[in-house]
Amino acid sequence: MPTLLLHFLLFLITTTVTNLIPAVHSNCIEAQQQSLLHFKQSLEFDSSESSKLITWNSSTECCAWLGVTCSTIGSVVGLDISNESISCSIDNSSSLFQLQHLQSLNLADNNFKSSSIPSAIGKLTELRYLNLSDAFFSGVIPIEISRLTRLITLDLSSNSYPSFAENQNLSMLIQNLTELTELYLDSVVLSGQGSDWCEAISSSLPNLRVLSLSGCRLSGPICDSLAKLQSLQEIDLSLNQLNGSIPSSVVSLPKLERLTLSHNRFSGQVPEFSNTSSPLFDTLYLENNNLEGQIPTSIFNLHGLLFLNLSSNNFSGFPFNGPRLPRNLSSVNLSNNSMLFDYNGSKSSFLQIRHLILASNKLRAFPDFLRNQSILYHLDLSNNQI
């Protein structure tokens, strides 16, 4: 009899626990479900193009809706409605901003009709990840984003040239975002920041790994203090009006993997590359600048280099037989320079390349070093003097 009673009690406990677990992990908090439904009702979107919003309805738990992520107690912590063909604006009264537990918000690849980013975004203080890229936001960037002090990723890139209010600047936006590791502000108008953008980033974002400020109308030089950000892995400052020389301290950052400084006004020579440069440094784009002289052999201290674009400058020579040549360098673009390649030395250590573009230089003869290329797949010698 005691044994039978014990088995009966174990059955009750097991059944109770089994029934409780799904409820704890899947039940959406009613108020948050209603906020999401109201948010959906306020949006204009093409239902035939939607894969997420069309799953939102009151007959199912919101934690089961596509694009919605919940915590174990049913709080909505993640919302991804990117690429949902939304075509309307969002204002500060939106029920979106009632989701106070949101840690991740992705509204990318929609059309918010050149409206401003709502200042109510500053209410979502739990956010770690905010992606508003390629969403046709315009107007003034709300300084309230500075309240999101837990942000790790901030992406406002590829919108309709949003800018700061007259009495505000980049420093005010990011000075409290000290946890940020990825900052994408491509096409945000920073022309009024002068050189202060560089000092602001260097002093405010010690953990930064990715810095992308392409097409921001930046001017002036790159500050040396950018090299203080020793965790930087990717830098994209292309399509600006930056000038001066390229700091050697920046190209020698110990964890740098990709550096894009193309379409600027940098002048002088390519800086020397340190022996301590990152072994993962695989991409260097310096095209369309005013750089000149010989490419230094120290460029091959970048042992992991895969892609190199130095086109549309005024370079006169390249060390195809430099020491410690990178084994994996696949693509080299040296077009639109002043290359001659009158080289008669040993060919035994020549760089092996798969894609080589030498168009629009000053070549007067077929380059002799090409005889030693064994893996060449694409070669462009057009518009020379051969």
Folded structure, characterized:
By secondary structure, the protein is of the alpha/beta class. It has a domain of 166 residues: Leucine-rich repeat, LRR (right-handed beta-alpha superhelix) (Alpha-Beta Horseshoe). Helix content is 15%, strand content 16%. It has five helices and 19 strands. It has a 14-stranded mixed β-sheet, with no helix packed on it. Strands 8-10-12-14-16 form a five-stranded parallel β-sheet, with no helix packed on it. Strand 1 and strand 2 form a beta hairpin. The N terminus is likely disordered.
Could you write a compact summary of the structure shown?
This protein has 386 residues and is an alpha/beta fold.
- Order of helices and strands, N to C? HHEEEEEHEHEEEEHEEEEEEEEE
- CATH topology name of the domain at 221-386, in short, is Leucine-rich repeat, LRR (right-handed beta-alpha superhelix)
Determine and state the CATH class of the domain at 221-386: Alpha Beta
Pairing-aware structural class of the strands and helices? alpha/beta
Order of adjacent strands in the largest pleated sheet: 1-2-3-4-5-6-7-9-11-13-15-17-18-19
Q: Give the fraction of residues assigned to helices.
A: 10-25%
User: Mean pLDDT score, rounded?
Assistant: 89
- Which descriptor suits the 3D outline? elongated
Output the radius of gyration: 27 Å
CATH superfamily of the domain at 221-386: Ribonuclease Inhibitor
- Describe the biggest sheet? 14 strands, mixed
Number of strands: 19
The assigned CATH architecture of the domain at 221-386 is Alpha-Beta Horseshoe
From the N-terminal CA to the C-terminal CA, the straight-line distance is: 103 Å
Report strand %: 15-25%
Number of helices: 5
Low-pLDDT stretches are: 1-25
